[in-house]
Amino acid sequence: MRRLWRGLSPAATVYGLLLAWEGVCRAGLVTPFLLPAPSAIAWRLGQQLLAGDLAWHLALSLYRTLVSFALALLIAVPLGLAMGRVRGVRWFCEPLLAVGFPAPKIVFVQVFMLWFGLHELPKIAMATLEGIFPILSATYLGALGVDRSLLWSARNLGTGEVRLLWKVVLPAALPQVLNGAQIALPICFIVVFVTEMLLGGGGLGDAMMLAQRFADSRGVFAGIVTVSLLGYGTMRVVAWTRRLLLHWHVETQVRQL
Amino acid sequence: MAVKIEARGLYKVYPRDKGEAVPALAGLDLQVYENEFLAIVGPSGCGKSTLLYLMAGFLDATAGELLLDGRPIRGPQRDCGIVFQHFALFPWKTVKGNILYGLEERKVPRAERERLARHYIAQMKLTGFENSYPHQLSGGMKQRVAIARTLALDPAVLLMDEPFGALDAQTRRLMQEELLALWERKKKTVVFVTHDVREAVYLADRVAVMTARPGRIKAIVDTRLSAAARRHELLESEELVAKANAVWALVREEVEKSAALGE
Amino acid sequence: MGGRLWRGVPLLVLALLWEGLTRGGLLPPEVLPPLDRVLERWAAFWWGGDLLPHLVTSLWREATGFSLSVAVGVPLGIGMAWVPRLRRACEPLLALSYPVPKQALIPVFMLWLGIGHASKIAVIFVGCLIPVVISSLNGARGVDPYLLWSATNLGTPRHRLLWRVIVPAALPDILGGIRMALSISFILLVTSEILAARAGLGYLCFFLGESGAYEEMFAVVLTVVLLGFGADRLYVQGMRRLLVWHLEEGR
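Output (structure tokens, whole complex):
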């Protein structure tokens, strides 16, 4: 009995809260403008799904997210490996990393708007910029921490310096690279969403701001729910991919090295 | 000789969230005499440490009796100081802070606290490291701090859970010698858990050999060495080796049994 | 000190590159105004007193939301670790709110609290609360049980364990979580001010961009970057001092 209660209680907190929320709205204690009932939000989500415009916004946001994430990986991984192994690169990039990482880069949205207009480019550029930092710093630290005996033995076997980066340093640093990527993907998604909120041009963020402009609270809350589910989904997918990748890689090989 | 700690039919079962419960001790009987040095050896996972934690009052026995000075042990014991294998020093306190900790908790007056801390810092050869933090110390130094911290409270019983298990061989040897010298001066009841049969024979008056899990006492061997045998630097005197071999024969049976159980 | 100067050289190179490219005419000033012009406008902006009120507004929002989240989040996280019932009640809520991008809450808080201080402070508070609670909870739950045993053995009664052992042992985790919250707070501050405000650095940047005052806009962008970086540096300095005993931070 006690165990049953324990198993139930987390769900109970959530259901209790939802019920209370619904009750408060039904009783007319708050206007639907300030706080729409959960049932109304669910209804709206269903409508959006059926009408197909949710799918369109979703596709746009995901497309931007994936492009910027891929770009961030393409830039940050080679750069991070180089920072880890090449002194000059490290010397030049480390201070930039140190200043750029903690700075609120979202303020560059104004700059990117100036440079790239309002459409795809500023959004993707912004998300790429934000995605680069976690990957770069993780890859750099990973490459820096590669076991020296590993490098020596590879060099001894005749591996050239550039091939060394790909053949030895990258695989050895892969767990950290994936750590960085795991942090970066949700960041890319959120930044895409935020730039859509700020610049418009379709996507989930734009749809939500549109709802807000028309004082459509249900639309705003439906937007929050969608984005949260997606954010959660992204995190799960990344965690799953990581396990898949590391399963045959790190646990079986690097640990033995 | 007076009995200091007594276990009668002691059972300890660890509950598991899922699946069957794990029995660690099953009907263990043991008497520890006042001011003796008793070592407990046995195969890994036989419940040696569990027994020690029961004596310290960290865990509650599932069944059976465990008495200290004839009174049942319930909850943390004032009279039993413990030293762990991995030191368990407070990393945010300096060497001196760690040694002062227990004295503060027991509301020892400030002047007396300072005096005791100074005394044990000197005795455990920690002079010059008073203001170092644990992460700045070697393993041997850390264990000296842990021992000093416990001794400063002057407990009647010293419980030691493989205290030298994490130290390198040379440090270990020196620490064994120091511990023995300390015990000869202070005369406390010591219960010393170890994997190392030779260490047990060298240090202890009696060695209790535990069975494979679930643990009971298989045999108790009297291992008091002559002064000459104790003085042998590398623990290779004939007397010590002979006694260690006798104990090892007993331990070996149990290790093979637990290996056969797949543990 | 020489090492620190040496570390600044790459930034200087970048600044020179900026200046060279714009002065050389490779980049037109409406794309990137020359750095010296930006710095000049910055100084004028600062001494003219136009920047200061916005800076103060932003800092006030930032400081209030951030310190509120620390003041609530640390005790809540430690409390959750200490009281199982509290943890069971709060954990599902935490799990539920964790994946919500806090920026998405900005429109809701605007709806509820208007576009003044309150909505910004609320967004920062909520956004920072979660990392602070989670790190405090994890830190307090992850305390080495041997430390607790050891303290018990040395005479600490159960109710004092919290203060004597759990809080200091969890401190590295807690301070790490607060650092994460600090950087989140600046992001939320700027985003919410760009989105809807009548004052603050984010608003100022947006306003200047809209009205084509690009030199001033870049000056504000630099201010914000410096602010975020400076706050982090300052915090890390303080953290190092508090954690001299800690292996990773002590060096």
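The mean pLDDT of chain C is 88.
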